[in-house]
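Most newcomers find our protein records easier to grasp once they have seen one. A record pairs a protein's sequence with a compact description of its fold. An example says more than a description, so a record of this kind follows:
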Amino acid sequence: MPLRVLILIGILSLASPAAAGDAKCIWDHLPGTARDDYLLAGLKDRRPDMMDHFTDAQFGVALTACRVSDAAMAHAGSAFSGYTGQLIAERRLEILTNIYPKQLDSAWATIDPGLIEALAQDVAKGADRGAGLKVWNALIAKLAPAASDLAALKLELVSYMSSRATRQVNERLY
């Protein structure tokens, strides 16, 4: 295939909307000022009401841009809720403990995917089969040496890990 065709394919792939199953796509298609306000509210209230910051019309535009079908709406909503919870937890961890998203990503990548799946299922069912404690202990072991406030790290990681697991599992389902 000629180089110019490969370049054109690459440019077109970057210009087209993200595939379904991407909560970040929904977030990125919401107005920037509303996103900023939502995250700021999340510093005070871990789960601010989305409808105080975004309109149905704005969500409609984002869902259309990200090609979320009606059949996938429930999983997209769960993934989006997990993603926004993850963003808020990341900001809180950064401010309270000096742990940054890249550090969280690195620590998360070391956790067994089956354990993350079990955690997400527990969160969805309101159950506790021990996955949460295992994930939490693994993250604490990786992040505690760099944290400026160990007590805040221990508390804030609970929200981070449940949000991220919920996002990750639901993104695969739509």
Observations:
- Residues 48 and 97 are 21 Å apart (CA to CA).
